[in-house]
Every structure is written in C-alpha cells, then in structure tokens.
C-alpha cells in the first residue's frame, strides 16, 4: 500500500512501462496522502492525449476518502483501484440513466444528500430506461416542460436539471457514456428572491405567541415555539438553528455560537457570536431548565431533538393567522428588514447574518408600505418648512394675511 506524507516538493513522475496503458499507469502511481487536517485522499495523475495534436499532458487529481482513519482509507484506496481497473462499458452495452444513478450513489455516498437522492429518484421515473448517451438537448427540453406542467417552481426545476447534468458528466468521466456526449444546455435563471417580511407589529405578535408555545407541555408546540423565537431574534438559517447544541449557547455571556465544527459550508457562513436579546434570553432560560444536565449542572446535548419542524410551523402559522408566505426563511428576511429600519450599520448586519452587503440589499431588504408612507410624510414636512411658498394657501391663511 503506497502511503506518503505531505510533500514540500513535487515527487518525480514514474515512467510508463512497456505495454502499460495510461489507466494502469495511473493506478500504479497513485498513493494515499494525509492532509494536515488529518483526512486521507488518493493522489493520482491522469494522462490526457490531445486527439488533434497528439500532445500528452498530465493532470494531478485528488479523490477524497472522507475519513481520518488509516484503515478505512486503505479500504477506500483498494476499492478505487479495482474500480479504475474494471473495464468500462462499451458503446454496444449502452448504460441507462438508472445505472448511472446507482453507480453515483455507490461511489459518492457521502456527497449524495437526501434532497439530491429524492430528485434522482424522481428523474429515474422519467428517464430511468433512457440510454445515457441518448439524453440530449431535445430530451432536456421535454423534461423541463414536464416539470413546469406538474407545477414545480422555477427554482426546483433548476435543481432538477442541475442534478441531471451532474449525472451525465459523471457518466462521461467514468466511461459509461462516450466522450463529449453531455449536451450543452443553458440552465434556467434562478428564481428571484421572495419579497416577504413581517411588519414590526406582526413580529412582536409572532414572538409573543412563540414564547408561550415554548413553555407548553406538548413537545411539538414547545420545540416549534423555541424555533420561531430563535429564528426571529437571530436571523439564522433553518439548518443552523436545528443543529444547535446547548454547549454553544452561553447564557452567562449572552452569546450563541451557530458554527458547527462538523459543518463547513462554502457559501453559507454562520455567526459565531450572536448576541442574545432580553426577550430571547428569557425563552432560552426556561428551555434550559428542562434540558439534560452534566455533572456541573449545565445544559448539554441538542437543543432540538429532531429536525422535523414543517408540521409544527404550519400549525403555528394557522394559529397566529399569518399569511401563507410566512416560512422559516421569512424570519431571516424580517430580521434584516427591521434591523435596517433602525439604521443599524450594514457591516454589523453582514457580520451577524454571514451575507455580504450587496446580498443583503438585493435579497433580504424589503420596505413596507407603512415605511414608505412615513418617509414620504417626513420628507414633505421638511420640504414645506424650507419652502413656505410651496404650501397651499387655505382660507385661514388668507384671512390672516388680510388682518396683517
């Protein structure tokens, strides 16, 4: 088993043996490499030959083993070598789309989330028996029309097409489809952000009701109320709130750390020091009294025992009479909108929410009609004070001028 540590300089490339294919040379020269973080990866170099010029280039790649354990990494390395040395499917035995999905789920298990698994199963119902190299632009257009006719939102249709193209590229890379067989398809534009946010009165009413729910004996109402209180007062995303543990809730310093060490998102940054407002502090204090305790008497474990919040949130929306567009993500929009209305600096909002300032202004800020009316009233009042001649003369003004 070839195992190498971190190299400062690039290792010498081993020459190809007589009669050795490019794939066999790649497997022979591959080795396990442990990153400074402790995780193992498979380092391998692919030989790429230009069909036009005949020039040979080398491309070094990494295949993650997704484990810091050496034994598990060696087993993954063995499976990878067997997979690379297995003869690829020929064009005569054409693979179906269902075969590609099964192969992807086998080799990329840890990257295949539940949402993608659902979409892949739905795609198999429509394209399961189609040869993977026969899925071209016309077939993609037909699938787009089917998804739209069934009532899927534009963003959901975009996600379906993204999963489909990922499967097609995987089939091409692994020899399950001919080279350059993936169609050039222009993805539909992403759906615009939904311009929904609660007013200050609605926010106060929702928090008061949620605080009462958080002290209820019903477990569903109790965790739903606690979730709504956290969402309205922290502006964090649903996954960050549901994955919260009591070890990261510090009621003494009034701070919450939403950064989970096991979760490292690339584009969704979480706040590591979110201040706890007084009304939220009362709710968290009551919730901490019934939580599990350690030897020191401090609450430990997960704040939410389950990630199921959809049913309870729907019941909360019906009980409060809030509109149908009120979803868990609307709480984030509401917090940002109300924070900007109080003239909070954009840099502070960006730090607490994890989004850039342009994203906040484009996506999360929604000005209500009452705010427009109030700003307009203030503006016209100052204009009339500065320019008295612009005021409309009433009969009382005329009578005053005549007496003078």
Question: What does this entry look like structurally?
Answer:
With 404 residues, this protein is an alpha+beta fold. It has 4 domains: 3-85, no CATH class; 97-173; 200-364, Orthogonal Bundle (hpI Integrase, Chain A); 368-404, no CATH class. Helix content is 49%, strand content 8%. The protein contains 16 helices and 7 strands. The strands form 2 sheets. The protein has a 4-stranded mixed beta sheet with strand order 1-2-3-4. A 3-stranded antiparallel beta sheet has the order 5-6-7, with no helix packed on it. Helix 3 (97-107) packs antiparallel against helix 4, helix 4 (114-127) crosses helix 6 and helix 7 packs antiparallel against helix 8. The longest helix has 20 residues, at 154-173. The termini are far apart.
Number of helices: 16
Write out the strand line-up for the largest beta sheet, numbering strands in chain order: 1-2-3-4
For the record, what is the CATH homologous superfamily label of the largest domain? Answer: Intergrase catalytic core
Note the beta-strand portion. Answer: 5-15%
Structural class of the helices, strands and pairings?
Answer: alpha+beta
CATH architecture of the largest domain: Orthogonal Bundle
Characterize the largest beta sheet: strand count, sense, and whether it forms a barrel. Answer: 4 strands, mixed
- Number of E-state strands: 7
Describe the global form: globular
Counting structural domains, the number is 4
- First-last Cα distance: 106 Å
What ranges have pLDDT less than 50 throughout 5 or more consecutive residues? 5-10, 389-394
Integer average pLDDT: 81
């Amino acid at each position: 088993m070839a195992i190498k540590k971190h190299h400062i300089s690039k290792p010498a490339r081993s020459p190809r043996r007589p009669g050795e294919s490019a794939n066999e040379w790649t497997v022979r020269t591959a080795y396990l490499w442990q990153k400074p973080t402790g995780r193992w990866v498979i380092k391998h170099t692919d030989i790429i030959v230009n069909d036009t010029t005949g020039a040979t280039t080398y491309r070094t790649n990494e295949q993650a083993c997704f484990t810091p354990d050496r034994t598990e990494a060696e087993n993954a390395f063995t499976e990878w070598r067997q997979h690379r040395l297995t003869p690829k499917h020929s064009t005569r035995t054409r693979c179906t789309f269902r075969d590609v999905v099964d192969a992807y789920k086998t080799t990329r298990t840890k990257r295949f989330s539940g949402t993608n698994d659902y979409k892949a199963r739905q795609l198999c119902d429509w394209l399961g028996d189609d040869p993977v190299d026969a899925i071209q632009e016309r077939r993609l257009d037909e699938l787009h029309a089917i998804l739209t006719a069934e009532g899927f939102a534009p963003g959901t249709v975009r996600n379906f097409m993204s999963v489909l193209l990922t499967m097609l590229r995987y089939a091409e890379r692994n020899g399950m489809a001919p080279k350059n067989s993936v169609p050039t398809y222009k993805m539909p534009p992403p759906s615009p952000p939904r311009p929904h946010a609660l007013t200050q009165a609605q926010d106060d009413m929702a928090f008061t009701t949620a605080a009462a729910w958080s002290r209820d004996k019903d477990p569903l109402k109790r965790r739903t109320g606690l979730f709504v209180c956290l969402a309205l007062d922290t502006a964090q995303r649903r996954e960050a709130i549901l994955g919260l543990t009591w070890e990261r809730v510090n009621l003494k310093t009034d701070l919450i750390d939403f950064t989970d060490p096991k979760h490292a998102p690339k584009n969704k940054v979480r706040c590591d020091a979110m201040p706890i407002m007084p009304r939220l502090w009362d709710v968290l204090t009551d919730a901490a009294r019934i939580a599990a305790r350690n030897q020191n008497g401090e609450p430990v474990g997960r704040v939410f025992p389950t990630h199921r919040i959809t049913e309870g949130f729907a019941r909360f929306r019906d009980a409060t009479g809030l509109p149908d567009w009120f979803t868990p993500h609307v709480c984030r929009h509401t917090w940002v909108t109300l924070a900007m209305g109080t003239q909070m600096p954009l840099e502070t909002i960006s730090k607490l929410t994890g989004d850039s300032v342009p994203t906040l202004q484009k996506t999360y800020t929604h000005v209500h009609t009452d705010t427009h009316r109030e700003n307009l009233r203030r503006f016209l009042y100052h204009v009339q004070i500065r320019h008295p001649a612009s005021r409309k003369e009433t009969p009382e003004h005329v009578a005053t001028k005549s007496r003078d």
